[in-house]
Amino acid sequence: MSSLTSTQINNTYPGLLKLEDSTSGLTNSFQTIQDGLGNNLPLKVKDGQIQGQNLFSFGYFVPDYEGPGFLATQTTPPGTSQNVLNATPFYNAGLNSFSAITYRVIVATTTTDTAEVAFYSTQFVPGLGLQPKDLILSGISLDLTTTGVKTLALPSTMSFSGFNSGIYFAVMKISNSGVTPTFRTGAYATTATFQVISSQLGLQFSSNNDTMSLPFKQGGTQATSPGFVYSTLATFKTSFVAADFSGGILNASYIGFGFGLNVIK
């Protein structure tokens, strides 16, 4: 192996490896690795991830969607779920960034229902298990006025890469004048149990393109309760502490809000 000792840059740069963008350094976007003359290598790199034709790892696959997925089965919000927070847990591997959220409205609202969503990291609360902790992104207002599969751009690019891979929460607030919510969204994919593997590889649409779910399934029921409705929490706080959940959970069997997050390629 040759050495660069006592050699000048102008005589050696063709044999050096560099990033596709020679001025920005390593970023959160994939860049092709090149030699000093600008010839591409079959290898791409970004902060914390490598892609290559002969490399096999789950990180190599960049999915179209991540999240818990949704089914054609409708989610029915409990009658006491308006004007308080509703939390849905899901797994994220922390590998990708997201530009939009995709969900399905099965029954459009016939009242004054509005629904806003925020994303949180997770904490363990003794006696109550995993619960939301620190705010990651809020200001996501769903369109409930018509039925169908809808894609809504997020207020800003969202990433979980600053946290450890694991469980996160999508927290929904249904607001109205106090009547039982009438809208129905596609249910959390309760038939899927291999969340760690399948969420990392991404979600899939059904053949009729109206149902999104995890591609790997196993018989049995969901390993964790798919949703919680809190009795006293009515605002998206910047951070929750264990005492915030002392008011209790109204309905631990709530199906939960189903969705997919659109991955930035």
Description:
The protein has two domains: 9-55, no CATH class; 65-263. The chain has helices at residues 9-12, 195-201; strands spanning 17-19, 31-35, 40-46, 49-52, 65-75, 85-92, 97-107, 114-125, 129-141, 148-159, 166-175, 184-188, 204-205, 212-213, 228-229, 259-263. The two termini are 37 Å apart. By secondary structure, it is mostly beta strands. The longest helix is centred in the last third of the chain and has 7 residues, at 195-201. Mean pLDDT is 82; it is low at 192-198 and 216-223. It has two helices and 16 strands. Strands 5, 7, 10, 12 and 16 form a five-stranded antiparallel beta sheet that branches. It has a five-stranded antiparallel beta sheet with strand order 9-8-11-6-15.
Ordered list of secondary-structure elements with their pairings:
Elements: H1 9-12, E1 17-19, E2 31-35, E3 40-46, E4 49-52, E5 65-75, E6 85-92, E7 97-107, E8 114-125, E9 129-141, E10 148-159, E11 166-175, E12 184-188, H2 195-201, E13 204-205, E14 212-213, E15 228-229, E16 259-263
Antiparallel strand pairs: 1-2, 2-3, 3-4, 5-12, 5-16, 6-11, 6-15, 7-10, 7-12, 7-16, 8-9, 8-11, 13-14
